[in-house]
Amino acid sequence: MTDARNNQVSHMKWWGWGLDGVGFHWEDKPGFAPFVLKAVGLDLHTAQPVPEPSFADLKVPKSKATATFTGALAGIVGEDDVTTDDLERVVHTYGKSLRDLVRIRTHKIERLPDVVVYPDDEAEIQKVVDAVVAADAVLIPFGGGSNIAGSLEPRADEKRIVVSLDLGRLNKVLDIDEESGIARIQAGALGPHLEKQLNDKGWTIGHFPDSFTHSSIGGWVATRSSGMQSDKYGDIAEIARGMRVVRPGGTLVIRALPSTSSGPSVREMILGSEGRLGVITEVTAQVHRIPAKRDVYAYFFPNIEAGFAAMQEISESDATPSITRVSDARETGFSLATSKSRKGLDKFLAGTVLPGLMKRKGWAKQPGGLENICLSFIGFEGSVEHAKRQKKLVDAIVKKHNGMGVGTGPGVLYDQKKFDTPYLRDFLLDRGAAGDVSETAGPWSKLADLHAGAYAAANAAYEKIGRKGWIMSHLSHSYHSGACLYFTFAFVGGDDMLGEYDVVKSAIQQSFIDNGGTLSHHHGVGLEHSPWLEQDISPEGVKVMRGLFAVTDPGENLNPRKIVADVRESISR
Amino acid sequence: MTDARNNQVSHMKWWGWGLDGVGFHWEDKPGFAPFVLKAVGLDLHTAQPVPEPSFADLKVPKSKATATFTGALAGIVGEDDVTTDDLERVVHTYGKSLRDLVRIRTHKIERLPDVVVYPDDEAEIQKVVDAVVAADAVLIPFGGGSNIAGSLEPRADEKRIVVSLDLGRLNKVLDIDEESGIARIQAGALGPHLEKQLNDKGWTIGHFPDSFTHSSIGGWVATRSSGMQSDKYGDIAEIARGMRVVRPGGTLVIRALPSTSSGPSVREMILGSEGRLGVITEVTAQVHRIPAKRDVYAYFFPNIEAGFAAMQEISESDATPSITRVSDARETGFSLATSKSRKGLDKFLAGTVLPGLMKRKGWAKQPGGLENICLSFIGFEGSVEHAKRQKKLVDAIVKKHNGMGVGTGPGVLYDQKKFDTPYLRDFLLDRGAAGDVSETAGPWSKLADLHAGAYAAANAAYEKIGRKGWIMSHLSHSYHSGACLYFTFAFVGGDDMLGEYDVVKSAIQQSFIDNGGTLSHHHGVGLEHSPWLEQDISPEGVKVMRGLFAVTDPGENLNPRKIVADVRESISR
Known about the structure:
2 copies of one chain form a homodimer. By secondary structure, chain A is of the alpha+beta class. Chain A has 3 domains: 2-169, Uridine Diphospho-n-acetylenolpyruvylglucosamine Reductase, domain 2, CATH 3.30.43.10; 173-289, Uridine Diphospho-n-acetylenolpyruvylglucosamine Reductase, domain 3 (2-Layer Sandwich), CATH 3.30.465; 293-417, Vanillyl-alcohol Oxidase, Chain A, domain 3. Helix content of chain A is 36%, strand content 20%. In chain A, the strands form 5 sheets. In chain A, strands 17-14-16-15-19-20-18 form a 7-stranded antiparallel β-sheet, with helices on both faces. In chain A, helix 18 (447-465) runs antiparallel to helix 19. Chains A and B meet through strand 10, strand 11, helix 10, strand 13 and strand 18 of A and strand 10, strand 11, helix 10, strand 13 and strand 18 of B.
C-alpha cells in the first residue's frame, strides 16, 4: 500500500491491482492449472513468474510543474498536501486497465501528472480548479484509481502542467435523510468505507461493482458504474440523485430530487463525464435499510440458450430479484476450476447427486452434453417473506426452462470471491499472459448474436495474431428490455503484447456494435472505448457531446480529450 | 375538431381543450355548484357563460413567409402539405396552458407561425430542417399541441420566418420487438392511437398522462412527461430507450439500449429538449404485455399527514403498486363534489357504512374532524396473484397508518374521469374564473413543507390580488426518495386576469423551490418555468445547458429561447 505523503489517503500497488501482499493463488485450487493449460496453453507448474516490479528500476520523467505554480497550489491546500514526489506521480498516472498494467510493467510512462494535490474540502477544490484554469494547466480528478478505460492518464503530448487532484480526503458520509432514504456522501469515499458508515446506521447503498474495494462514489458517477445488485438498486445513474461539481468559477449543484422535467438533464450530463465537466465533490445517493434477507442462490441450466431465455422471462415477470446472472459454459468451467478442493460447489459436483440429477433431466444427451451446462446466480433481498416469494416465482421460471436450483452454498462462495477477480490479471501478467474484460448491453432479442459475435470476433483475432486464446462470458444486470453481457478473454502474449491485445480487444468491441450492443455497459468511455463512440451514439450524437465539452471547457483544461478523443489519440497510446 | 388542410391530421379546438362539442357539465353533479360557490365565490346558477369564441372575430396577422420560401417547402413536402391558412396558423401558435387559453380568448396573438408543414416522413423532415436553417428561419415542432409550459409559441419579437412542423402524419407503431419488449413508434402518434396499435398485438406502453388523449409520444419525450402508472412503468425518461432526432445536416440516432456508460447521456439531453436540439421523429419505447389485472382501489386516510406517511412507507416497502395517489382534504372534497348523484363514491358516502366506520375509527374526533379525510387511489397490475399480493402488502401499510380501503368502485370512476379534467379550465374561463395546475417533486422529508408552502404562497397571493382563491393538491408518482405533489388552483379574475394569475402562479412556483422541490415534475420548462431554472439546477447548471444550446444551434433556428429564456422574455408575455 502506497501511502500518500501526508498520510490518510492510501492507494493500490503502483504496478498492479489491490493491496500489497494480496494476490491470486492457484495452489489450493486443484482444477485451475489444468484449466489454464487447456485454455491458453500456459503451464503453471513450469511457468516462472517474474519478480515483483521494483520502483527503483523506473525512470520517472521530471515534473514540469514550476515552483511558482506548486507554490500557488500549496497556498491553497497547504504545503503538505502538494507533492511532486515520483512515486505519487506514478501512482496517479494510470488506472488499472490491462493496458495500464502492461505499460507500467514495461516502464512505458511517457507523461505523468506533474503535481498531485490532496484538498481537504470543496472550497479548496474550487480554488485549485480556478488556479489551474488561470495558469492554463490541466486538471485530472482521481478517486480510487481503479479506472480501466484510460480516463486518468494525461495526453502523451501534453505540453502544459498536469495536476492530479486526489479526492481521498473527502471520504465521509455527511448526512443521512432517513425519511427520504438519501445520503450525502463525499466523492472520494471508497466503497467499503462509505458502506461501513452507512451500515453503522442501518443503511446500505446497494452498489457493489467488482471494483468496490478500490473505487470511489465520485468515480462511480464519473464513469456510469453499475453494481452487482443493480436489478434491485439500479445503476449509479439511478442511485445518484444529487451532486455537486466544482467548475471553473463556480460550483454546479444538482439537488437530490426523485424526478424532474427541468430540460435536458444536467444530472445525466455529469454522470459519465469523467472529469470533463469539472470535479465531482459530493453525491447525494439513494440508500436503503439493510434488508432482513440477502441471499444469492445458485442454479444450473443445460445450456446458455436456456439461461438467457430464463433471465428474459424473469425480467418480464412480476418477480423482482436483486441479481440475475448466468455464466456461459466456458465461464462455468472457469468457476468450477477456481473452486477450492472439497468445498462448496466442487464438493457438490464431485458427489453423485448433481450429475445424477442432470442425467435424469437428459442434459447429458443434449449436443455437447454436460459440457454445455451453465451456472447461474440469482439474488433475493427484502423481508424474509418477500425474498421467499421472489425465489418461488423465479424457481418456477427456471424450471420451465429446464434449469435446476442447487441452493445457497455456491452463492456464498460467489459473494466471497466477487471482489478478488481483478487480482487474476496481475497473476497472469506475471506469467506472460494477458487477461482482460469487455462488457456491453443490448436488447434481449440481440443477446444471442452479441454472444456469438464476440466469440467469433475473438477467435478470428486469436487466429490473426497466432495465439491460443480464451474467451468466456456471463449475462448480468437485467433490465426490462435487455441485459449486460460481460466477456473475459486471455492469451499468452509475445513481445508485442499490447499490439496483440489491441487486435483482440478491438475485434470484440467492434462485434458489440455490429450486433446491436453498446461500447460499454458500465466501464465508461475514456480513451479505450472512444473509437466506437460514433458508431454507438451516431456521428450527430458525438457532435453534440463534443460541442458540450467545447463550450463548457473552452481551454481544454479539464481532463481533455477523454470520451471524445480523436481516434488517432486512442489507438496510438 | 379542426381538420388539417389535407386531412389526416386533426387538432383540438383552436380556442380550448379537446374535441369540438365536448365539455365539462355540472348539471348532473349536485355537489358541484355549492362547492364552486364556497371555493371561489362563483354562483353557477346565475353566472352567464360567454358564447363560444368565433374565429371570424379574430384578427390574424399576415404571414411573413415569402413565396420563395413556401415554394421551397412545397418542393419538399408537396404543395398540399404546406399552408399559410389563418386557422392552421392559429392552431399551431399556442399550447393549452391557462395563459394560452386566456390569450386566445382575448385575441392576444401577436406572433403566429408563418407557415405550417405536414411532412410524411423523416427524409422530408431532414430537408425541411436544412431548408429552415439555410434560410435562417425558425422551426418549432408540433405534436398534439397540449403543452402547458409555453414551449410552442414563437417569440413575440421574432423577425424571421417561423415554421411550425406538425408531426401528425408520423403516427404509426412501426415495429414491436416482442422478445425485448420495445416498440418503434413514430413521434407524432397520439396516446390513444399508439396505445390501440399496441393493444391490438397484446401490448401496452403504460404511459397515461392527463393529456393522453391529445398528446404525442414525441411531445412526451420533448417535455419529460410522466404518466399515472409511473410507479410501475417509469417516467417517459425510463420508457423511451431509443430515439431519432433530425438535426441540421444529419439525424442523431440513439439506439434502444437497456443501459450504457457512453459518457454524458445524449439520450437524456434529448429528453426535455422541447425542440431545441432538433425534431424528434421516432421513439423506441419500452412496452409491456397487457397485464391480467389492472385495478385501482380507493382508500381513505384520516388526514394528509397519514396519507403521506403511508405512501412513503409503501415506497420503501417490498410492495410495487402501479399507482400511488392521495388527495388532500380539499381535493377530496372536490372529488366528492364532482361525483354524479347516486353513483359510486357518492352513493357509498351517502350511505351509513362509511361514516359509521370513520366514526368508529375516531376520525370525527381529530382536529378538523371528518373535514380532513383524504381520498387515495392505489393501483395494482400484473398477474392475478401478483396484484392480490401487492394489495395485501399495501393494505397492511394503509391500516398501520389508520387508513381504510373502500374497494374498486371509486377507482373505476377515477379511471373513467382521469382524462376529462382539462375541460374544466374552459368551463371556468367561460364563467370568468381562472383555474390551473402546478406540480413539483421533492424528497419525502420535504413533502409536508412543500404542501404547506404552496398553500401559504397561494393564499398570500390571493390576498395580494384581493381575490377569493382556491388551492388543492394530491401526491402522485412515488419514487424511492420522494414523490410528486400536484396542485390545482382557481379564482374569479378581473380585467387583468393574466396579471393576477402571474402573481398566484409565481408565488406557488417560488414556494416549490424554497421548500426543496423542482420547478416541474412532468410539464417541462418552456417559457413558463424558465425563470426558476437557475434556482432549480443552479446558475452553473443553467450555464451548461445554455452552452449546450448555443453550440448545437448557433443560429438559434430551433425553437429558440425555450427552457433558458431570458427572465424578461418569460414574464413579459
